Amino acid sequence: MDNFIIGVGSGGFRVKNRLKADSERYEGLEESLKYVRDKGFFPSCSINRFFSGVWYFLRGPLSVILRDLYLNRRLFENLLAKVGEFNLWAEKNLLEQGAMMITWVDDLGYNKGTFMNPKFYEEFIFPWHKKAIDLAHRYGAFVNMHSHGNINAIVPLLVEAGLDVLNPIGPSDNMDLAILKEKFGARLCLQGGLSKHIGFMNVEKLRQHVADRLKTGSPGEGFILSSEGSLPYEMTRNNVLAFIKLSRQYRRNVPS
After folding, report:
1. What would the pLDDT profile of 45-66 be if each residue is shown by its tens digit?
2. Residue 251: Cβ within 10 Å count
3. Angle between helices 29-38 and 73-97 (to 10 degrees)
4. CB 54 within 8 A of CB 116
5. Of 121, 147, 156, 230, which residue is least crowded by CB atoms under 10 Å?
6. Strands 223-227 and 189-194
7. Residue 239 CB coordination number (10 Å)
8. Mean of the per-residue pLDDT values for the chain?
9. Cα distances (Å, whole numbers) of residue 72 to 75, 78, 91, 98, 114
10. Over residues 110-122, mean pLDDT
11. Number of H helices and number of E strands within the chain?
């Protein structure tokens, strides 16, 4: 497939063909990934987003994209196809260089539900997610997808597609770690579980929260402890150090 640039302006969008090679983008990557593996770590590489790629870079704001799903589906499909084909092309290059996990960000909801009817997700976006997952699996790699929001309604589809890891399983988005673990824990690794408000917790509250999340998520494996976002800016240095210590302690000895 051809490489391309898509630009957006007040007059719409345009597509420019480019040389497919772009080999300089990947210079030294294979050696870097090998170095990471040789040090005993697990190299992960990111591709661009699919739905959010159209939203953030081509056709935002969100209200315009959602309107397109009802009134201008052909345009939305065409834009999604351009983003999707480029993502798969980039993903293949990363996999051939030795990436062991492919990640992408595709925010699909808010705290009350998905941005769109789940049927729209299944018709338009799910096929691209499945193609990307299948491609990674053909190379023996894993896939980790990030999506904020209450996306409980489409988790069964992500499991059906063979997704390996879903993050961030945010409590404030009504993504219940215990329920998701019970329903899908045998087929899907859950990453997250920590509240985005950990920066306001004292050390004892933080200890209780970390212990509870690990106690809930760890049984049967398939759980990666992390927050809904990064460590919050309001978290004190002492609490960051306490969190690291607690995480190491409880990950080795999960509270009973």
Report:
1. 999 999 999 999 999 899 999 9
2. 14
3. 60
4. no
5. 230
6. parallel
7. 21
8. 89
9. 6, 10, 28, 39, 20
10. 96
11. 10, 10
Structure tokens that stand for 20 in this block: 């497919």
The predicted-structure confidence for 196-210, as pLDDT tens digits, reads as follows: 999 999 999 999 999
Whether the upstream peptide bond of residue 127 has omega within 30° of 0, thus cis, is no
Tally Cβ neighbours within 10 Å of residue 185: 18
Residues of the chain with CATH 3.20.20.210: 30-167
Cα–Cα distance measured from residue 237 to residue 215, given in angstroms and rounded to the nearest whole number: 25
- Which among 184, 185, 251 has a CA at the least distance from the CA of 222? 185
* Gap between the Cα atoms of 115 and 66, Å rounded: 8
Provide the phi-psi class of 28: left if phi over 0, else alpha when psi is between -120 and 50, else beta: left
Q: Where are the alpha helices (DSSP H) in 21-176?
A: 29-38, 51-53, 62-71, 73-97, 118-120, 126-138, 155-161
3-class DSSP state for residue 28? coil
Residue 191's nearest CA partner among 87, 105, 100 is 105
- Residue 2: pLDDT band (50, 70, 90) is very low
Closest by CA position to 252, among listed 227, 228, 218, 222: 218
Tell me the one-letter amino acid at 108.
L
Q: Which two tokens stand for residue 126?
A: 């799910």
Domain 30-167: which topology?
Answer: TIM Barrel (3.20.20)
How many Å from the N-terminal Cα to the C-terminal Cα in the chain?
A: 52
Q: Which amino acid is at 143?
A: V
Residue 141: Cβ-neighbour burial (10 angstroms; 0-12, 13-18, 19+): buried
